[in-house]
Amino acid sequence: MNVFSKFFKPFRALALIPVVLAATLSIAQTSSIVMASTTSTEQSGLFGHLLPEFKKASGIDVKVVAVGTGQAIDMGRRGDADVLFVHDQVAEEKVVAEGFALKRYPVMYNDFVLIGPAADPAQVKGRDIVEALKKVSAANAGFISRGDKSGTHAAELRYWKNAGVEPPAFAGYKACGCGMGPALNMAASLGAYVLADRGTWLSFKNRADLAVLVEGDKRLFNQYGVMVVNPAKHPQTKVLEAQKFVDWVISPAGQGVIAGYQINGEQLFFPNAAQ
């Protein structure tokens, strides 16, 4: 080794530092994804149970933005998320058809329930959601709507349409523009009716005198889907990591974790990716 090599050797080592730092930063940047999802999956506690298991399996962190399904899908259209986990199949199929998301995969289901005061002043108790909403409107009873373009809100509007009450404009109807938890809180404080997903209801603590009044109608079926944002539209999408999440959550391992999430011995979501 000549004298010049000896002199410049430390500088060559220093020159490698930015390269190593850049590689480390690149790894850090690709070890997390952003998932736009619904307030029901977040507020039910499912993600607190599910995502740590995915992290163990993959080493990938998932940063959840919990908003209404409509807002979550709009995040995908804008490229503000890598993966969407939502529950409005019509809107999901539309965003895929528009080319903003890749293939939609069914993941799990539960159901909607109509919650209301245990005394049931509008006498809606039963299995028919359409007849129940007709009675709520006729009685001018208090009703809290999410009003946030969420999957729950979209379902609610379908039921009002089927009931011939479109748009619902009776005096007791109030749209909060809020998530499922706050809507339930409003219903509890006002003694009003509200449509909720069963998962969030089971995890809800501030029930006051609310009770499930309508359940079991096949129209209350609530399907969830997952899809990766299309990198052809948004090249910054972390498509490989996002697809790893999709592949895991629809695999037997991920489906088993979903099935295992319970509150007080009651299962909140039912995996159906294989169907």
Automatic annotation (TrEMBL):
Transmembrane segments: none
Keyword terms of this UniProt record: Signal
Signal peptide extent: 1-36
Gene3D superfamilies found in the cross-reference section: Periplasmic binding protein-like II
Keyword rRNA-binding in record: no
A Pfam family the protein falls into: PBP_like_2
Record domain PBP: where: 29-252
Protein name: PBP domain-containing protein
Organism: Polaromonas naphthalenivorans (strain CJ2)
